[in-house]
Amino acid sequence: MIPGWLLLSAAAVLLAGYLGAESRLHRRGDRWPVGRSAAAVGAVAAVAGAGLWPVRGAVDDTVVHLLVTMLAPLLLALSAPVSLLLRTAPARVRAAVLVVLHSRWARFATRLPVATALEAGGLYVYYLVPVPPVLHGLLMVHMVAAGWLFSAVLVGPDPVPHRPGILPRAAALLVVFAAHDVLAKLLYARGGGAGAQLLAYGGDVVEVATAVALFGRWYVRVRPRPGRAVHPAAR
């Protein structure tokens, strides 16, 4: 488990960096969507809440897991941190970020099957594989990164190489939904009790929120507007 002080420090750094970049954008006279700022604040609140949460048992561990590795990555993806960085960072930093975005690694990691496997696989390793305690922190970091990557591919406004259409993304979300549900049932069968139930119900809430974001963004993109024809494939 990641120490609480480290989570609080990460929340403070994330909030300071995001608000600082947004402030530079506003000083230039540019605008930034309020919804993205709200998502960033929500991600920070989720991480800070996990850092402040007293961990006394399996239920508390599940709460921290849900906040840090599921809710915070979704909100972070919705806040579009990469787009904000590209609009406010110095030229050298922007060039480095673009190199990473166009690299083979980025193209591989953002492929939908890869992002889906990373998102679902980390959970099973964390809960079912006897990983040494010293590696728990690294595994949590992996799950946060995988959750953000998966959410960014599905619903994030940041640029993603070869983002697939709505149907493959919806199918990937169903796969992760099922994987989380099966894992929760396995843990419950092994005596997980309230912690396994919380993992199931809490995971469902985050995944339903992801589905709302996914189909909401799709609807905004394809809804009929005056003077614009609707593509037959979008009907």
Automatic annotation (TrEMBL):
<keyword id="KW-0472">Membrane</keyword>
<feature type="transmembrane region" description="Helical">
    <location>
        <begin position="63"/>
        <end position="87"/>
    </location>
</feature>
<keyword id="KW-1003">Cell membrane</keyword>
<protein>
    <recommendedName>
        <fullName>Cytochrome c oxidase assembly protein</fullName>
    </recommendedName>
</protein>
<keyword id="KW-0812">Transmembrane</keyword>
<dbReference type="GO" id="GO:0005886">
    <property type="term" value="C:plasma membrane"/>
</dbReference>
<dbReference type="InterPro" id="IPR019108">
    <property type="entry name" value="Caa3_assmbl_CtaG-rel"/>
</dbReference>
<keyword id="KW-1133">Transmembrane helix</keyword>
<feature type="transmembrane region" description="Helical">
    <location>
        <begin position="108"/>
        <end position="129"/>
    </location>
</feature>
<feature type="transmembrane region" description="Helical">
    <location>
        <begin position="135"/>
        <end position="155"/>
    </location>
</feature>
<dbReference type="Pfam" id="PF09678">
    <property type="entry name" value="Caa3_CtaG"/>
</dbReference>
<feature type="transmembrane region" description="Helical">
    <location>
        <begin position="167"/>
        <end position="188"/>
    </location>
</feature>
<feature type="transmembrane region" description="Helical">
    <location>
        <begin position="200"/>
        <end position="220"/>
    </location>
</feature>
